[in-house]
Design a protein that fits this description.
- 20% of the residues lie in helices and 30% in strands.
- It is an alpha+beta fold.
- Strands 6, 7, 8, 9, 11, 12, 14, 15, 19 and 20 form a 10-stranded antiparallel sheet that branches. Strands 29-28-27-26-23-22-21-30 form an 8-stranded parallel sheet. Strands 5, 10, 13, 16, 17 and 18 form a 6-stranded antiparallel sheet that branches.
- Helix 7 runs parallel beside helix 8, helix 10 packs parallel to helix 11 and helix 11 runs parallel beside helix 12.
- The structure holds alpha-D-galactopyranose (GLA).
- Alpha-D-galactopyranose (GLA) binds next to loops.
- This is Alpha-galactosidase.
- It is an enzyme of class 3 (hydrolase).
- InterPro entries: Aldolase_TIM, Alpga-gal_N_sf, Alpha-glycosidase_related, GH, Glyco_hydro_27/36_CS, Glyco_hydro_36, Glyco_hydro_36_C, Glyco_hydro_36_N.
Length: 728
């Protein structure tokens, strides 16, 4: 619900348990009042500290500078005296960079407007309200609309900004962030996700100091290294307690997420497109829409934040027809064969897999052009009939005869220098004339800022998809952007390339899922470099990491599931020694870890032992038994091996709280230890639950815990069912 107190000029945006307060100051400035637990009063202007020095400008005409430098603002301007991070900076044709963001009016509407060309959360009119605050910089004619959408059933709100040029001259947007939150510091700690290839999204936490601390990417993708997520938490915040202010960007390109602690101990938290290398020329009459930030406040620790994001994204972001369905259990040939395969090998794998209950064969990289290594043919999207004799249609038909679906890998944004496409259209690659293009994995990035490039690649890929019965596509992106230049953009628009590139990627993904509505799309980027909320708008699942080792995956999946629904995490069972880290883990553990995600296999199933094949059958049964619960339930993190070094544990609880599943893995075994009482979470304290042969109240299981005996041997996992007593 959105309330406006006309007398006090206060907006209050309420969700079930939270309020967000905004005030108009001096009829000119849009000030920030409050974000936190729900408030009943609307007369909360005292939170502006208007009567404290340096006063508001109207009361103190000779001193606007220090007001601007300390007031809590909703969308801070540049160049007028607020020296903290600004949210927007435009350069006029005269070369000046200042702007004054002054309040003009507001509108409250039911529902949530779509954001032009961008992924965004969506909602029915009855589920969401949107506040639009209109501001203007009169000298430049820049109109700014601040958008706040409030999801009533969820403690989440989204923010985005529209800049319009209502002046008579063009101006250049040099920076335009999507959200800003000013607050008093409360000894906040900053949480973010960091990593590398094979080590994506590890949770890191550090005290917030004075100055600016940020996480960012200007690699042209959300990246392996840093992640468009930032949370400020009060000291000692745990899974169950503490206050959490979180921002997550619904965008897959360059970003900055920053917290700045200033001289007066206030904190400015910001998120948006990274300004480095960014400029956008806005002609009179044109507008620019920023990607949105999803904000969550939790007064009940990190667990509540996580579950709010999971619900928000499951109910209001992901659109796939597969969202609430069990995904077919797939087998992917990448780790089985790499580039060395033909249709015979694939069919051998499919035959064995189908006998064990696997439901879809995915043919990975290497089926097109003349690609037998990673050094050619990206861009030549037609089947290599030397390798796949009889072509895709025949292969898909033969796979189908085994009772399985068929899927393929593509990497549409790329071109190999050794390809017909590059020889025909060398200008389609992103490049700076006169400079060597930075090579990475022997490939160049196509200029997806250009419609003819996107359309040209799309037509080739659509033709492939129409040529055979293809149910699934893995869309990969295996390098980062560099030597940024577009042949299609004039000199003063080159700074638009990275964002226009993302808009091109989104446009093509939208076209793909519109033209092929039944297609199951999985995004991927050299493992998990584009696991973000932007991509989830197009695909219900994203490959989490190229590291498939079950123990490494504990940390990767823990970090990913901190924000994203578990069923969106691409997770497969692979062979040992693991191809990335060389570790041996029990086959059962590999299956249990992959069950938290989409579940599938990435190995040569024809080479498994009889015992391992028997295990596959058991795992397939477990998937069918538990996937509805895992996909739709509430996720609780009980313990983190990254923190305690010896065991990892999570639970999924059905929304009705009648059923739950507990996962426990002992990483390294230790000598001479006692059993551990593991406290469960999320159950109904008043209900009685069966655990094995025994029955307990939910309160006993949550307060005293269940007993976990130490096991002999490393990396042993357990799945334990907890069911309301009397439920079948
Ligand atoms: C990336 C993906 C892998 C695989 C290879 C193929 O690294 O993450 O799963 O598809 O590309 O080249």
């Amino acid at each position: 619900m959105i309330r406006f107190d006309e007398k006090n000029k206060v907006f209050l945006l309420d969700t079930e348990n939270t309020s967000y307060g905004i005030a108009v100051v001096d009829d000119r400035y849009v000030g920030h009042l409050y974000y936190g637990k729900k408030l009943r009063d609307t007369d909360i202007r005292y939170l502006l500290r208007e009567d404290e020095a340096p006063f508001t400008p109207a009361a103190n005409k000779r001193e606007t500078g220090s007001f601007l430098d300390c007031a809590h603002m909703e969308y801070p301007e540049t160049g007028m005296g607020d020296y903290r991070e600004s949210a927007v900076c435009i350069r006029s044709m005269s070369g000046h960079r200042a702007s004054e963001i002054r309040y003009e009016g507001y509108e409250i509407i039911q529902g949530k407007p779509a954001l032009e060309g961008l992924p965004a959360t969506w909602a029915q009119d009855s589920q969401c309200g949107t506040l639009k605050i209109f501001c203007r910089d009169s000298l430049s004619g820049m109109k700014i609309t601040l958008l706040y959408s409030v999801f009533e059933g969820l403690d989440a709100l989204t923010r985005s900004v529209i800049i319009e040029n209502e002046g008579t001259e063009p101006f250049y947007i040099e920076k335009v962030l999507s959200a800003c939150l000013d607050m008093d510091d409360r000894d906040f700690e900053m949480m973010s996700l960091a990593g590398s290839w094979g080590r994506e999204r590890r949770i890191q936490r550090r005290p917030l100091g004075y100055g600016r601390q940020n996480v960012a990417s200007f690699r042209g993708e959300s990246s392996h290294q840093e992640h468009p997520f930032l949370a400020l938490v009060t000291p000692g915040t745990t899974q169950e307690s503490g206050e959490v202010y979180a921002m997550n960007f619904v965008y897959s390109g360059n970003f900055i997420a920053q917290a700045e602690k200033s001289q007066f101990d206030s904190v400015r938290m910001t998120m948006g497109i990274h300004p480095e290398g960014f400029t956008w020329k806005l002609e009179p009459g044109e507008r620019f829409t920023t990607p949105e930030v999803a904000m969550v406040y939790s007064a009940e620790g990190l667990g509540k934040m996580t579950r709010t994001y999971h619900d928000l994204y499951r109910e209001h972001l992901i659109r796939s027809p597969y969202l609430h369905k069990k995904r077919p259990i797939l087998i992917n040939n990448w780790e089985a064969t790499y580039f060395d395969f033909d249709e015979k090998k694939l069919l051998e794998i499919a035959k064995e897999a189908s006998e064990l209950g696997i439901e879809m064969l995915v043919m990975d990289d290497g089926w097109f052009g003349k690609r037998n290594l990673d050094d050619s043919s990206l861009g030549d999207w037609y089947v290599n009939e030397g390798k796949i004799k009889g072509g895709l249609r025949k292969l898909a038909e033969n796979v189908k005869k085994l009772g399985m679906k068929f899927g393929i890998w593509i990497e549409p944004e790329m071109v190999s220098p050794d390809s017909e496409l590059y020889r025909k259209h060398p200008d389609w690659a992103i490049q700076i004339p006169g400079r060597d293009i930075t090579q990475s994995r022997a490939q160049y990035v196509l200029d997806f800022s250009r419609n003819e490039v996107v359309d040209g690649v799309y037509e080739m890929i659509a033709k492939v998809l129409r040529s055979a019965d293809i149910s699934y596509v893995k869309w990969d992106m295996n390098r980062q952007l560099a030597t940024l230049g577009s042949y299609a953009l004039p000199a003063d628009r080159q700074g638009e390339l990275s964002h226009r590139y993302m808009l091109g990627v989104y446009r093509m993904q939208e076209r793909l899922i519109t033209d092929f509505p039944e297609l199951l799309l999985e995004n991927c980027s050299g493992g998990g470099a584009r696991f973000d909320a932007g991509m989830l708008y197009y695909s219900p699942q994203i490959w989490c990491s190229d590291d498939t080792d079950a123990i490494e995956r504990l940390a990767i999946q823990e970090g990913t599931a901190l924000v994203y629904p578990v069923a969106s995490m691409g997770a497969h069972v692979s062979v040992c020694p693991n191809h990335t880290v060389g570790r041996n883990t029990p086959f059962e553990t590999r299956g249990d870890v992959a069950l938290l995600g989409t579940f599938g296999y990435e190995l040569d199933i024809t080479k498994l032992s009889v015992e391992e094949k028997a295990q596959v059958k058991i795992q397939v049964e477990k998937y069918h038994k538990y996937n509805d619960l895992i996909r739709e339930g509430d996720y609780y993190r009980l313990a983190s091996a990254s923190e305690n070094g010896s065991y990892d544990s999570w639970m999924i609880v059905e929304k009705s709280r009648r059923k739950a599943l507990l996962f426990y893995v002992q990483t390294l075994a230790r000598a001479n230890t006692k059993s551990r009482f593991l406290r469960l979470a999320g159950l109904d304290p008043e209900k009685r639950y069966s655990v094995g042969e025994k029955e307990y109240f939910g309160s006993t299981l949550m307060q005293a815990g269940i007993r976990i005996l130490p096991e002999s041997g490393d990396f042993k996992s357990r799945l334990i069912e907890i069911t309301e007593a009397g439920t079948p």
